């Protein structure tokens, strides 16, 4: 859901509908909850249904929901009730409050509002081991890494051993010199 179609229903800065899918936080959460419920009904009980969400947008990483705490509460309640197995929240820093007028992180709000059997996964600046520990101590069931894992494929082992972590070197990942001229192209006789 993060940054894509379902997210556009939740975000009041994008969703200007005046029907049952727009306006109030409950209406804006309706479509993501209906999609989650439809997936839950169409799949076996052991099928894992995860929903990733963020306040940010692809074009605006600093965006927050104007009624953030209310939207978060309603959305997490609705997704939990609809059958989500886990809620994966992401933001710039998973250990810092990002919701307007709230002193809690988006992960903390999820923890408060989902059922006990719904896992909460936190993401955002958790490549820093202290931030990762904080997110887990604060109640997240799991954490995910982006940049930290790309730079350190063995991140858990390095952290456990107290070894230094590497910064991401994009040149290692993004190799602009690959070309088809170096490979055989099927059908090119």
UniProtKB/TrEMBL annotation:
InterPro entries: Aldolase_TIM, OxRdtase_FMN_N, YqjM-like
Native organism: Halohasta litorea
Keyword Isomerase: no
Stated name of the protein: NADH:flavin oxidoreductase/NADH oxidase N-terminal domain-containing protein
Necessary cofactors: FMN
Keyword annotations: Flavoprotein, FMN, NADP, Oxidoreductase
Pfam families, per database record: Oxidored_FMN
GO terms of molecular function: oxidoreductase activity
Domain NADH:flavin oxidoreductase/NADH oxidase N-terminal: residue ranges: 5-164
Highest taxon of source: Archaea
Region span, Disordered: 161-189
């Amino acid at each position: 859901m993060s940054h894509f179609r379902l997210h556009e229903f939740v975000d009041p800065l994008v969703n200007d509908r005046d029907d049952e899918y727009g306006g109030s936080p409950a209406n804006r959460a309706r479509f993501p909850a209906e999609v989650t419920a439809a997936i839950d009904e169409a799949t076996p009980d052991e099928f894992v249904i995860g929903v990733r969400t963020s306040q940010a947008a692809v074009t605006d990483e600093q965006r927050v929901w104007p009624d953030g705490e209310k939207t978060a509460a309603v959305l997490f309640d609705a997704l939990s009730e609809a059958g989500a197995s886990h809620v994966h929240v992401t933001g710039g820093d998973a250990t810092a409050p990002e919701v307007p007028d709230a002193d809690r992180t988006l992960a903390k709000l999820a923890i408060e509002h989902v059922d006990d059997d719904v896992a909460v996964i936190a993401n955002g600046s958790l490549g820093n081991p202290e931030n990762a520990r904080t997110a887990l101590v604060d109640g997240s069931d799991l954490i995910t890494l982006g940049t930290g894992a790309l730079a350190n494929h063995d991140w858990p082992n390095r952290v456990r051993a107290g070894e230094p972590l590497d910064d991401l070197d994009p040149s290692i990942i993004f190799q602009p010199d690959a070309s088809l001229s170096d490979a055989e192209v099927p059908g090119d006789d």
